[in-house]
Amino acid sequence: MIYLDNAATTFPKPQIVTDTVLDYLTNCGASPGRGGYDSAMQSSEMLFECQENIASLLSLPTPERIVFTKNATEAINAAIFGIIKDGDEIIISSMEHNAVMRSAHECTKRGAKLKIAHANEKGKVSPESIEKLISDKTKLICVIHSSNVSGTINDIHSVARIAKKHNVYTLFDLSQSAGIIPINARDFDMLAFSGHKGLFGIMGTGCLYVREGINIKPLLYGGTGSYSESARMPDFFPDIFHAGTVNAPGIASLSEGVKFIMHEGVYEKEKEITRYMYDLLSEIPNIIIPGERDRTSAISVVLKGFDSVGIAEKLNSLGICVRAGLHCAPLAHRTLGTITTGTVRFSPGFFTEKSDVEFVVSSLKKIVEN
Ligand SMILES: Cc1ncc(COP(=O)(O)O)c(C=O)c1O
Q1: Residue of the nearest CA to atom 15 in ligand 1?
Q2: 296 lines ligand 1 (CB under 6 A)
Q3: Vertex 172, ends 281 and 146: CA angle to 5°?
Q4: Above pLDDT 90, what percent of the chain?
Q5: 73 Cβ below 6 A of ligand 1
Q6: Position 35 pLDDT exceeds 90
Q7: What is the whole-number distance in angstroms between the Cα of residue 165 and the centre of ligand 1?
Q8: Which of 23, 135, 174, 359 is within CB 3.0–4.6 Å of 193 for a Cys-Cys bond?
Q9: Taking the alpha carbons of 329, 331, 334, 339 in that order, is the dihedral positive or negative?
Q10: Is the pLDDT higher at 370 or at 107?
Q11: Whole-prediction pTM value?
Q12: Are 146 and 180 in contact (CB under 8 A)?
């Protein structure tokens, strides 16, 4: 099998990640923050360690303000519904995943106004186009760091500067960039990302980061293991967002995944394999590859005259795993001009070999020629 769907979830995981899950389930297994016995304390310690590792990877100043969610979608929902109220405005880019688009759309049903900043045909949104949409009612700007369709990387540092100037919060979706490109997120307001993609955690992991000073409502209410006598949720992090038992084996895996990234220096290899695949694919006649060459590892293609799903099915019959269609991002496809065709998305990862890429591209060439 050649797995090229790392933009959906990374596979395989580093061996240490798999071993850690087994080790946690075999030798610890306790619920963190819920007991004073040794293994429960060990479990709580593991959560802190994971926060510290993520903070270190992304240069975040306050590890305790990283909360664990079940995926990026939950983190995005928590941020948007925790901030936006009736009468507020929310600005999103036209490259957003449905996790942002549908949540923002739901806000409009609850009395908020949605504005969309249109990206160019390469999928890049200009910070100036966002600035033009800001009004005195704008509360939040949500921008995808890197597209899950075209891999296009947005200049979120400039967006953050503009938002700060206008006293507006930002939420950046790092699902396709965390662990894939170096990020210094020190000055950002809010971040959401999956743990199971570039960070190599297992499925069921994600994170929300909320910088110090931002008041936000929790998405869920319930037991946290702290201040149990009170009818209110604790107002401190991470407990404010940790109602119910967290996915401790998943968090243990995420912590090891992040350590793996820091030790292995994965960025260069991922960039190189993506560029290698992009260049080989570009040589196929009648292929369209929306986006820029410099990108994260989502390479979506349209082969003129061919159905995307049909191509993915043919590749599957050769043991090649790719995704076809709209990738939960119809807004992005409208922007890139691929809404009617959809795309076949190749997303290589750290464990993809050049020989895999060569086999896939030559198979694709044969499919097109025949
Ligand atoms: C850019 C982007 N945002 C959000 C998500 C949702 O991630 P999750 O499945 O972890 O909720 C994805 C998943 O593909 C994504 O690519």
Answers
A1: 175
A2: no
A3: 5
A4: 98
A5: yes
A6: no
A7: 29
A8: 174
A9: positive
A10: 107
A11: 0.98
A12: yes
Torsion of CA 176, 182, 186, 188, to 10 degrees: -30
What single-letter DSSP state applies at residue 121? Answer: T
Q: How long, in residues, is the chain?
A: 370
Ligand 1, atom 7: nearest CA belongs to which residue?
Answer: 72
Strands 343-346 and 323-325: antiparallel
Domains of the chain (ranges; CATH) run 2-10+265-369 (3.90.1150.10), 15-263 (3.40.640.10)
Q: What is the pLDDT of residue 317?
A: 97
Burial status of residue 67 (CB atoms within 10 A of its CB: 0-12, 13-18, 19 or more): buried
To the nearest 10°, report the CA torsion of 261, 263, 267, 269.
Answer: -110
Tens of pLDDT, residues 348-369: 999 999 999 999 999 999 999 9
Question: Ligand 1 pocket, 320 CB below 6 A?
Answer: no
Q: Say if residue 341's pLDDT is above 90.
A: yes
Q: What is the pLDDT of residue 229?
A: 95
**Mean pLDDT across the chain, nearest whole number?**
97
Residue type, 114: L
What pLDDT is stored for residue 324 in this prediction?
97
Angle, helix 354-369 to helix 266-282, in steps of 10 degrees: 20
Q: How far apart are the first and last CA of the chain?
A: 23
